[in-house]
Amino acid sequence: MLGRGDWEAAQSGSELAYCPWEVRNTNSLGVKDVEHENIHSSLSSLIGTTHVQTQHNQLLVYPATEEEISQILRAASAHGYGVVPQGNGSQSQFGKGFIEKKIQLSLKRMTGIVEHSIPDLTAAVLAGTPLQMMQQVLKQSGQWLPIDPMVSAEATIGGIVAANSSGPKRILYGSLRDYVIGMRIVYPDGSVVKSGGKVVKNVAGYDLCKLFIGSRGTLGILTEITFKLRPLPHYQELVLIPLQTLDEAAKLQRIILASEFIPSSLELLTPQFSVELGQRPSYTLLVGCDEGEAACIYHRERLTELAGADFNLKRGEGADQFWQEYRSYFNSSSQDFLLAKVSVLPMQVLPFLQLLRELFDGSSVLMSCSAGLGTGIIRLTIQDGLNQDGVAPKLKIAREWAEKHQGALILEKAPFVIQKQLSIWGSEPSAFPLMKAIKQKIDPDYLLNSGSFIGGL
Ligand SMILES: Cc1cc2nc3c(=O)[nH]c(=O)nc-3n(C[C@H](O)[C@H](O)[C@H](O)COP(=O)(O)OP(=O)(O)OC[C@H]3O[C@@H](n4cnc5c(N)ncnc54)[C@H](O)[C@@H]3O)c2cc1C
Question: Which of 68, 193, 337, 354 shows the greatest Cβ crowding within 10 Å of its Cβ?
């Protein structure tokens, strides 16, 4: 298994392309193939040949049960291979770390709703279940998991929880940490652990679920997740207000956040993004309301008083359609596409947009943002010209500004030319030593997704 020394060496080398054992292996051609054959056949004997594949020299396995996952982890450890859990693999090209000998473990055969208690508004779901499929089933009972991440239709609930993905509606409904009430996890040593339960807050002790949300498959493999659900809103409206300046947006931000409004979204689109979504070439403030028709009418009247009547309105399915187009914008398959997630305090959002404008005005790349004026989460995209000089240094300045304001700028999607100049996660947070201690306690051999997380965890 990958030794502590190798790992430290790889870290200190911090050359994305370079890896100590790679040198070792390339000199002795053939050894790699034998090792590959050995583990391929032992995995096939565990879960069946049809569920073990080799793609681009990488092993890809499809277990169907927790027991099979346990056996795969033990076999991987015995053969000196790392393991990378995978949902739909939207992020599989991302932050690959230094593991060369690794097994991509797909949860795609573990799909379905295990239990749905309609009166209790809870549901237990297998981790390989696509979010869209889950929401469609829950919708039949007028319920949903109130998250709206920017993910493709195939993205799995396990991958979304492992990345703690969220969307604009976080301003009203909160994040996954508010809805996950239980988990089943296979630990790196193959043991199966249950955390939380099927009812809201039933166990004493540390809420381990929260530790695994956002852990990106570096601490354990999620196999089943139990959620608290909400009734689906009967009626929703989305008001799209064109604004000329960031000052206008700042005025509305302060009034709306300090008022009786209960917006289900409060996103500011930069002019470039407004045009992409069929709006005028100006800033566009998206103010959503999920509180039923009467509340939406009151909402709209108040917004008219505050911002005038010159706005676009989308109701019900029209609003759903708009959000669909909005989400698909972030799922570009172009190589020349960068997506960064910036998190700052809400009142720092507009000064950050001002900085971006100063940095990228006059540049030929297309920079656009959707900025959460209530959540402080900004989705920044840059495309068409990422291999130009200057893009990464500008992003570095933007990251330094965010970190100076107790925030962060994380690359969610970026081509190698950028990854080579800018780390995915940015500076290690002050609590990093504790995070490292937790990783070393739970995964002492760095078996799971090692090198892909913050500080090389
Ligand atoms: C740092 C970061 C932050 C992100 N934040 C957001 C966001 O706020 N909103 C948004 O819409 N999208 C966000 N994304 C994108 C989001 O991660 C993916 O779109 C989503 O995870 C895709 O689901 P998937 O099934 O394709 O997962 P994959 O891409 O297959 O996996 C995503 C991550 O989760 C791990 N993983 C997958 N399944 C499991 C499992 N069962 N157990 C343990 N680990 C698992 C993988 O190893 C990988 O690290 C973020 C991505 C990154 C890198």
Answer: 68
